[in-house]
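SEQUENCE WITH STRUCTURE:
===
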Amino acid sequence: MGMIRETGPLEGSPYISTSGWQPPPIQSIEDTGLTQGFLADMVIKALYFRGQATGFEIAEQLRLPFQAVVAPVMDFLKREHMCEIKGSAGVSAGSYQYVITSKGSERARDELERTTYMGAAPVPWTDYVAAIRAQGSGRLKVNPRMMRQALSHLVLDENVFSKIGPAINSGRSIFLYGPPGNGKTTIAESIGRMVLRDDIYIPYAILADGQIIVLYDGINHEAVQQERTGTTGALGGHRSDARWIRIHRPVVMVGGELTLDSLDLQYDPVNKFYEAPFQMKANGGLFLIDDFGRQQIRPRDLLNRWIVPMEKNVDFLSLHTGQKLEVPFELLLVFSTNLPPRDLVDEAFLRRIRHKIEVTSPSFDDYREIFRRVAEMRGFDFDEQALRYLLQEYYIKPERKLRANHPRDLLDQIVDVADYLGIKPAMSKELIDRAAQSYFVDL
């Protein structure tokens, strides 16, 4: 069984600016890293489904420059009698209308048996690995001032706050644990926003051992809005390789739906190409495993899956051909759980997780500050006496634990009750009673 292995150490962490890195411009077919035959197959599939198209339209679909790459491919296909020119929408060669011939249709059908992929032309695997390294060769250094600014929207115990910064600076792994409703996921998302302080380039798709892996996904990746600069040649020239898209550093979150299979390449047997797994989509950013321990697989099996990536900064993925790919694991891995750590992990695994942070329930003072902030955001007039009544009747007397999410939920509950009664939402005793009685459940 073969293996595609990257060379050299994978050191450092991805949390710095891109330092000006961007995909180099394409000036020839050789610069794409793809063969003319491979590109011809992509073009002929595009023509097969479109019926007819201009050279510029094909270049736009493949995200390749027309003059340097697509034009020579079209000339090759014409010489092979797989397409012909039907007319022209302008004077330039890119405006010619190309139509597929019967011979071209036959070749397109043969190619569709191998893969139906029709998007941007892929980049070679080695180019992807090099790009992740180039954009992840340093480490974001945060300090208390930066942390207070990034987490200013949260009310955190100082002990918890003081642990988050060093955990980010480690660029390794974080284990957030504690009772539900106290902001573990929100903390992780806030860390993600710090990761997203700059941008990176990723390819739409990758070619590995003759197989196509789709990487970019509009759900987990947020594209940076930027002016198009003639990437296909239709606008006259190009500055960089348009097969790459500039995105904010990703924050990928998964929860109870996570399975071991979803952490490997996802092969589509109908369309015959792969989708990258979650951790590969998170490269250069943050990967949050939320509600850890509530997945359909045993926590121990999931944790064992991460031992090598956490120690070596590399991951291993398998193609259905049996080929192994060694993938950079350049991301901040965050586990978040409200289950007791002793029920999930053993000492050996905890040793491998660099930072363990318990997110505790708020104090009465912290709860008051959270309530005041949420009330202000919701347009309530904050009432100190009403809050004391709430605390006395629904926390102290029943010995109920404080939770950081309760102020938000209770105020939303008051809004619901007030809307039903046709009155203005307020921190009144009546509305607090009705909200609390319909919100809290004595377990």
Summary: The chain has a mean pLDDT of 87. The radius of gyration is 27 Å. The longest strand covers residues 83-88.
